[in-house]
Automatic annotation (TrEMBL):
Matches recorded under InterPro entries: MoaB/Mog-like_dom_sf, MoaB/Mog_dom, MoeA-like, MoeA_C_domain_IV, MoeA_C_domain_IV_sf, MoeA_linker/N, MoeA_linker/N_sf
Region described as Disordered: 388-411
SMART domains per the UniProt record, alphabetical: MoCF_biosynth (SM00852)
Main function: Catalyzes the insertion of molybdate into adenylated molybdopterin with the concomitant release of AMP.
UniProt protein name: Molybdopterin molybdenumtransferase
Species annotation: Catenuloplanes indicus
Length: 411
């Protein structure tokens, strides 16, 4: 629906998350091939299949002797890892010393462990090999062409190691979504102490880090503001960001006051609302719109409230699932926590309550959680989800929207 005719009836919070994710999923960026060392944090664009049998050749699991026939065995040489093993002669009573990971010579019937062997007076080897095989056969881990991981898998160090193990030098991955940040508000300072009617911009410095932890790329120069409180300045700033960004996050201007120019700017740029206000507190009002880019490809604009904590609620409610969809990931699954103290409901709205989660998975509400405050956010683990028409009682289980903290740790 166009920005001019869009209804401002709030959408349910859970429905808003679903709409944002599905919109991102439908607009996933193109794939690109990157070196293994650059693939961490990306998403596989194609299934990971083995390029060869794993292992590709018979491989000794131990240090020992590859033997043929009955003991004692005459040792003909040594095979180390990384070398090609010659086959054992077609005769009994012969052996080849092999190292762990080395290629097993053809004709081997068993491998005798070094620590379970003995040397005879004439220099031969004797002992009793164990009944179970002491080497890995080709395809023991995976056969050539076997799918190991599906497309859409998040690439982490384990996936990178597996890809190298299979013989890959690079991987086909989805391009990271590119994000830009536009800060609206003539009342904002970008440096120094607040005062005389001016406050510090706390979102412009912080949002790029939040966006990067949610999987987006935010280039140097992709943060602009404060943008002058005029319609022309808003339109120009958004149009400039459309040149390179897949997602534009704006702060402030989501109301319809005398200096709130976001809605008129969307109308002028031909934007279509996907979400226009959400029934959640804090965080009112927030929005996501589709805006055509200069190349005809649609971009997304997420309008975040100007109050800092409300902006982070909007970020985690709408931008996190949108970026998950753009990255080709599955929809975020919310963990469950146990409330350690009461959390009030917010009537017909969902309440996202800032909490700290301890090592016992008990969530306790934070103090200093007004919409304009950041003190509580700085020490929180995430937002406890209190559904409409309910209150959070101590001991009850609720969903948690976790903040993307460093290394996934809960403070």
């Amino acid at each position: 629906m166009s920005s001019e005719t869009a209804s401002a009836t709030p959408i349910a919070w859970a429905d808003a998350q679903r709409v944002a994710f599905e919109a991102g999923r439908a607009a996933r960026p193109d794939a690109e091939r990157v070196a293994l060392g650059e693939a961490d944090g990306r998403t596989l664009a194609e299934p990971l299949v083995t390029l060869t049998d794993l292992p590709p050749f018979p491989t000794s699991s131990i240090d020992g002797y590859a033997v043929r026939g009955a003991p004692p065995w005459r040792v003909l040489g040594r095979v180390l890892a990384g070398s090609v093993a010659p086959p054992l002669p077609d005769e009994d009573g012969v052996a080849m010393e092999v190292a762990t990971g080395a290629m097993v010579p053809g004709g081997t019937r068993a491998i005798l462990r070094t620590e379970e062997s003995a040397t005879t007076a004439d220099g031969r080897i004797e002992g009793t090999p164990r009944a179970e095989p002491e080497w890995r056969v080709p395809g023991d881990e995976a056969a050539r062409g076997e799918e190991l991981l599906p497309a859409g898998t998040a690439v982490d160090p384990g996936v990178i190691g597996l890809a190298a193990h299979c013989g890959y030098d690079s991987l086909p991955v989805l391009r990271r979504p590119r994000a830009a940040v536009l800060v609206f508000g003539d009342e904002l300072l970008t440096g120094g102490l607040p005062g005389n009617g001016l406050v510090r911009d706390a979102l412009g410095p912080a949002l790029p880090s939040w966006l990067r932890r949610l999987g987006a790329t935010v280039d140097t120069g992709a943060v602009l503001g404060p943008v002058k409180d005029t319609l022309e300045a808003h339109v120009d700033a958004i149009r400039a960001a459309l040149d390179s960004a897949d997602l534009i996050c704006t702060t402030g201007g989501t109301m319809r006051g005398p200096v709130d120019h976001l809605h008129p700017a969307l109308r002028e740029l031909g934007g279509d609302y996907l979400i226009n206000t959400v029934a959640v507190r804090p965080g009112f009002p927030m929005l996501v719109a589709r805006v055509p880019g200069p190349d005809g490809r649609d971009r997304f604009l997420a309008g975040l409230p100007g109050n800092p904590q409300s902006a982070i609620v909007a970020l985690m409610s709408l931008v996190a699932p949108l970026l998950a969809g753009l990255a080709g990931r599955e929809a975020p699954r919310l963990p469950r926590v146990t409330l350690g103290a009461p959390v009030r409901g917010r009537g017909t709205d969902t309440h996202l309550a800032l909490v700290h989660v301890d090592r016992e998975n008990v969530a306790r509400p934070m103090a200093h959680v007004g919409s304009s405050m950041l003190r509580g956010l700085a020490g929180a683990s995430g937002f406890a989800v209190i559904p409409p028409g309910t209150s959070g009682e101590p001991g009850s289980q609720v969903d948690l929207v976790p903040l993307p903290l460093l290394n996934g740790e809960r403070r």
